[in-house]
Design a protein that fits this description.
- There is one protein chain.
- The chain has 342 residues and is an alpha/beta fold.
- It has three domains: 81 residues; 126 residues, no CATH class; 78 residues, no CATH class.
- It contains four helices and 17 strands.
- Strands 6, 7, 8, 9, 10, 11, 12, 13, 14 and 15 form a ten-stranded mixed sheet that branches. A three-stranded antiparallel sheet has the order 1-2-3.
- The termini are far apart.
């Protein structure tokens, strides 16, 4: 009898041990690193991320559709995080997107990076596609009308050693111009070329030996990019020189002063100088005989200009000069050959 009880007790102990082991295994399966609870939590997080991304994607596509309908540029990616649909479900706290219970779903930057990858903004201006990678480059469309044309690239009138200019000449060759004064001369055949200039504060196109280029080409300014101006070095001087400009698609950046040599436009874009608050000098249209009129409010957004130097010098075919052209430029100290004939 005692022996039977001993066997029964041993069996009970073994059963309890086995049950404890099974409970441990079950607990590990539920709570461990790869447990069911952890997996369930991860699945919920992934589902929440997926739902967030779907809402943001739909928001962005709706914004982009409206922009296309209204002939506007593609919307900024961040706008998709400020719609009613987004704000009804989420908040942005610091750099995180959280739900209404305060649970972090994803970082704001990660969502924006995903949008950029899925829907890269390919801006198209004047028939030229401008990918995100080119947004800081100055982009020009060169039209060569003659059989061949030699064009100088460099930085007209600069003898000092400044940062080299990186340039894609649009003919299959790229290069870096370190001798800015002598520059580089490229021969083009008849046709169209897209020229891209890396971030720079000075750039010039023209004839050989710094001469006027003359006829035989036209240039469209597609995109200014990130172009600045060394105010100390270029005080009272232009820092960008482009000949035979036939179209300008966007307003100039704030700091630059452009020498439009022999421009081929008939009327200057009325918003060309809308970004010029704080600048003391203004671009000039020298020997631009096709210009017939000047918008009356051309300089309205330039209240700090102090000099109008050769601004319309050689523009012989101007039919009239607006009476209130300089109405808002009360700080002007000098008018130098502003309308002189060359």
């Amino acid at each position: 009898m005692k022996r039977t009880k001993g066997i029964t007790l041993l069996a009970l102990v073994i059963t309890i041990v086995i049950m404890l082991l099974l409970a441990g295994v079950a607990l590990q399966m539920a709570m461990g690193e790869n447990g069911l609870i952890v997996k369930s939590t991860q699945a919920k997080k992934e589902q929440a991320k997926s739902e967030l991304l779907e809402i943001v994607k739909l928001n962005y596509l709706n914004l982009k559709t409206k922009a296309i309908e209204n002939s506007q540029p593609s919307p900024e990616y961040e706008l998709s995080l400020s719609t009613t649909e987004f704000l009804d479900k989420y908040n942005i706290v610091d750099d995180n997107i959280v739900d209404k219970q305060g649970n972090i779903i994803e970082t704001k930057q990660e969502i924006l990076n995903t949008l950029k990858m899925l829907y890269p903004n390919k801006k198209i201006v004047g028939g030229v596609e401008i990918p995100e990678s080119d947004k800081d480059k100055m982009i020009l469309k060169l039209k060569v009308l003659d059989e061949t044309k030699e064009i100088y690239f460099g930085a007209f009138g600069i003898s000092e050693s400044l940062t080299p200019i990186k340039i894609d000449y649009g003919n299959g060759t790229k290069g870096e111009i370190s001798d800015l004064y002598n520059g580089i001369t490229i021969e083009y055949s008849r046709g169209e070329y897209i020229i891209k200039v890396e971030e720079t504060g000075y750039f010039s196109m023209g004839g050989q030996l710094h001469s006027f280029l003359g006829e035989g080409i036209e240039v469209e300014i597609i995109h200014w990019g990130k172009v600045t101006r060394n105010k100390e070095y270029f005080d009272e001087r232009w820092n960008i020189r482009i000949p035979n400009v036939s179209k300008i698609y966007e307003p100039e950046p704030e700091e630059i002063v452009v020498f439009y040599e022999n421009a081929k436009i008939t009327e200057i874009p009325k918003d060309l100088f809308k970004n010029k608050r704080g600048i003391k000098d203004i671009s000039r249209f020298i020997e631009s005989k096709t210009i017939k009129s000047i918008p009356e409010d051309l300089f309205k957004e330039c209240p700090d200009i102090e000099r109008f130097s050769e601004t319309f010098s050689g523009c012989e075919n101007l039919e009239s000069i607006p009476e209130n052209l300089f109405k808002y430029n009360t700080k002007v100290k000098e008018f130098y050959q502003t309308f002189s004939r060359m």
